[in-house]
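Lab manual, section 2.4: Encoding a predicted structure.

Procedure: take the sequence of the chain (307 residues), apply the prediction step described in section 2.3, and record the output as structure tokens. A sample record is shown.
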Amino acid sequence: MKMKYLTILAFSLCACFCTQAQTITKEQLIALTAEWKGERFADGRPKVADKWIERAKKVSLEEAWGILRNEGFNNQYEGDWEILYQDKVLTGRALTAMYIPSRPDIDKMIRDKGKAEGRKGSPNSWPIDMLTPGDIYVADAFGKIIDGTLIGDNLGNAIYAKSKNGVIFYGSVRDIEGLSKIEGFNYFVKGTDPSYIQNLMLGGLNVPIRMGRAVCLPGDLVIAKRGGVVFIPSHLVEKVILNAEFIALRDAFGHQRLREAKYTAGEIDMQWTDAIKKDFLAWLDQNPDKLPMTRKELDEFMKDRTW
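Recorded output:
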């Protein structure tokens, strides 16, 4: 029965991409993100809590990547981006769009259907209309640079007004000077070009997309930093962040004790002895300001940890 449902789902997704070229249904999106048990948007997209978006800013890409790999998620990182502000971290919930090479008959159908649904403007503005605060507009434009500029400064202002966030495009942008004037906005793109969007059409809204070597689903938590971008499946967000925060605490304790020459590097790098564990717990009590989580969260987390 499960296999039959998955076959129907796959067929429905193909039908969406090839004929409607717009959003998948709420039921399909829920099925794709079935392991997420929390709150959802009206269209079914997982709604990761704002607190995790904020805490994700301090999570290193390496820690997130390592934890995801341990969970069997091997295709969640993409590097080599052109970034507007190198030192500004971008985190948020993914709202996805897929762009494909233009074909007049399909493009006309997409525009006609969008008009019938009450969508306004060109199709490349439709994802922007769906953004909410905390979202990141994530789009796959198959790496197109020339004539693949998904936004300029006008749409950039609209994006920031809706999401208070930036964009991640496997494609390009234009009007860099104008975009740089949008306070708080940032982009991670594959290139920039003065050309305007041509021979490109919207192939899907809030659908699974490929971002280079990574896969992104609607509702994934995105962490974008100078070293690249990680897409965390919504159902793993809490686990990834708590593990990353704990690793950071262990490292802070270990580094301090190594500088104090209290332990050797071998003692810190190997399985900790009971004495070191006891010292670590005392260090946590003495340094409550270093905790990125509540003490209750930390105590619950450490119950199931083997150190």
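Check your result against the sample. The chain has twelve helices and 14 strands.
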